Amino acid sequence: MEQEAVSVSSYCPQLIDGLLQTPDYARAVLGCAFPPLEDDVEMLVSARMERKALLDRRPTCVINVILEEAALGRRIGGAEVMRAQYEHLAACAARPNVVLQVMPTERAEHAGLQGCPLTLVETAEETMLAYMEGNGHSILVSDTSEVGVLARRYAMIRSQALSPEESVALIEQLAGEL
After folding, report:
1. Which InterPro entries does this chain map to (predicted)?
2. pLDDT tens across 103-153, in order?
3. Checking phi first, is residue 126 left (phi over 0); if not, alpha (psi -120 to 50) or beta?
4. Residue 26 exposed, middle or buried by CB count within 10 Å (0-12, 13-18, 19+)
5. Distance CA 101, CA 20 (A)
6. Domain 2-17+59-176, what architecture?
7. How far is CA 164 from CA 64, 66, 67, 102, 161, in A?
């Protein structure tokens, strides 16, 4: 569904959205899974990188990503991997179809504290679906009233996050600190 969507909006409390990950960051994330993924890591990294076709697809897909600042501060893979990841995020944010925002850690209370990653997908038929995952399980929500609640929650999270410009400035600051 993601590859055919007209818009994809995600809230990522712990990790950088897979759609915006570099191969090294994805490899580090997948490499620390438990139980270990062993031989599947490279296959999963490749699959994750194939998702990036959505960034360049025509017709254009609008991509909105909100990252918790804590996800940016977690140095997954070490300083070099994170520096490259920050640079990649800034480059993605410069695309006309990508809006990247950061929820600052200093905002102690916000609508995303219920915790799980959330993705909203709008189809070409203008149907909105929600996808949530965690601990090896995923839920696809299609009930319009439930999706409506999740979409309103996402809108509130988005309004509480830093602006896109402030978000990129923070990411560039983090890159400069490494």
Report:
1. DUF5753
2. 999 998 999 998 789 999 999 999 999 999 888 789 999 999 999 999 999
3. left
4. buried
5. 13
6. 2-Layer Sandwich (3.30)
7. 10, 10, 11, 8, 9
Spatial separation of the C-alpha atoms in residues 93 and 113, rounded to whole Å: 24
* Residues with Cβ within 8 Å of residue 118, at least 6 apart in sequence: 10, 11, 130, 131, 132, 150, 153, 154
Q: What is the CA radius of gyration of the chain?
A: 16
Give CA–CA dist 150/126, Å, rounded: 16
Say what the pTM is.
Answer: 0.93
Structure tokens at 90: 């800034």
Query: Could you tell me which of 51, 164, 64 has the C-alpha nearest to residue 122?
Result: 64
